[in-house]
Amino acid sequence: MAFLSDTLSRIKISSTNAITQKARVLKSEGRDVIALSAGEPDFDTPENIKQAAVEALLQGKTKYPPVCGIPELRAAIVAKLKRENGLSYDVAETFVSAGGKHIIFNVLTATLNPGDEVIIPAPYWVSYPEMVSFSAGVPVIVPTTQAEGFRLTPQALEAAITPRTKWLLINSPSNPSGAAYSAADLRGLADVLLRHPQVWVLTDDIYEHLLYDGATFATMAQVEPALKARTVTMNGMSKGYAMTGWRLGYCAAPVALIKAMEVIQSQSTSGVCGISQYASVEALNGPQDFLAPRRLAFQRRRDLTVSAISAIDGLTCPSPQGAFYVFPSCVGLLGSKTPDGKVLETDRDFVDALLDAEGVAVVHGSAFGSPGHFRISYATSDEELTEACTRIARFCAQLKRA
């Protein structure tokens, strides 16, 4: 339509949201659909956090909040980063937005000029390159391989940096691969970044509390304090605290960038819902004992899913180190034909045919910059996962190989 902005030509709708919505529509029409497409914990928000929201309502804490966040929450963020990550920040170096996505959007909008480059390892979360493009930046996609554990190597980072590079965007544990960067992995990347002072780092730590097999979480500013002055450490309440609908993300960064983000947010959403903020104070300051059993439940579901998918002829499925996704390869089945004669030429063809035939909604790997794969979210019950894997196996068994 002629009256729409040219900006829309640079971005497209989120593939994960689109597939999840399609699954909702099919369910509403009476289809038996198992949706493994959304990155959303099936656990409920802990009771003490919900009660804190109720108390805030009853106390009339319903007015406009400060743009950067209420003082209590910003102080809780400072305490959390010190306690869990060994990072020292002032309250003025913290910022609160309507979800982690909003933090990233504000950061990129505040810093990118046309032509500025942002290095994004693939597979990546679907929104990263879209947000860069929206801000007139250039997404520089650096492929990683399963053999590399889907992690960016120092050599690949060095090769991707140019005089126009402004950001490295790194997500650990990763959506969609579940790959996690150890302190040693980050040390190698930090050594490269120290040689390129124009490059800032945005760490998406949203899956911090979902690391398995006893692994220890690490983040860039913690590993290399010399990079703290050009690092944005982003996190949020959605995943570990099962607060997706509360829409609250936060970050710590140099004051000059915080002030720039405040300008943008003051003219867009303004402050985040106050009730969500008071609930988040309790989440960060209150008991953390629910995290471990939920992490163990996700680890059990990971093992169940990896075992079932790995047993399917034509699929390979590495075991992720964190988050709640597996990222199998379906390359061995591309070129196959469905029983009705359709040729599965791409990963998108594979996931579309799977949804049509068996009612299992997953997301194609090309949406994450890694064709030939697909993402399964195992943030659902063991029973539903078992049934979904049974359907995927049945679908694959009915394909006629090329």
Describe the 3D structure.
- The longest helix has 20 residues, at 291-310.
- By secondary structure, this protein is of the alpha/beta class.
- The protein has helices at 15-28, 47-58, 71-85, 100-111, 127-134, 154-160, 183-193, 220-223, 255-266, 274-285, 291-310, 347-358, 382-397; strands at 34-35, 94-97, 117-122, 138-143, 165-171, 200-204, 231-236, 249-252, 325-326, 360-361, 363-364, 374-377.
- Strand 6 (200-204), helix 8 and strand 7 (231-236) form a beta-alpha-beta unit.
- The protein is globular and about 60 Å long.
- Helix content is 39%, strand content 12%.
- The mean pLDDT is 96.
Instruction: State the end-to-end distance.
Output: 43 Å
Query: Whole-number average pLDDT?
Result: 96
Order of helices and strands: HEHHEHEHEHEHEHEEHHHEHEEEH
CATH superfamily of the largest domain: Type I PLP-dependent aspartate aminotransferase-like (Major domain)
Structural class: alpha/beta
Helical proportion, percent range: 25-40%
Number of helices: 13
Biggest β-sheet: strands ordered side by side in the sheet: 2-8-7-6-5-3-4
Percent of sequence in beta strands:
5-15%
Q: Do you know the CATH topology of the largest domain?
A: Aspartate Aminotransferase, domain 2
The description of the largest β-sheet is: 7 strands, mixed
Characterize this entry briefly:
The protein has 402 residues and is α/β, with parallel strands linked by helices. It has 2 domains: 6-44 and 291-397, Aspartate Aminotransferase, domain 1; 62-285, 3-Layer(aba) Sandwich (Aspartate Aminotransferase, domain 2), CATH 3.40.640.10. Helix content is 39%, strand content 12%.
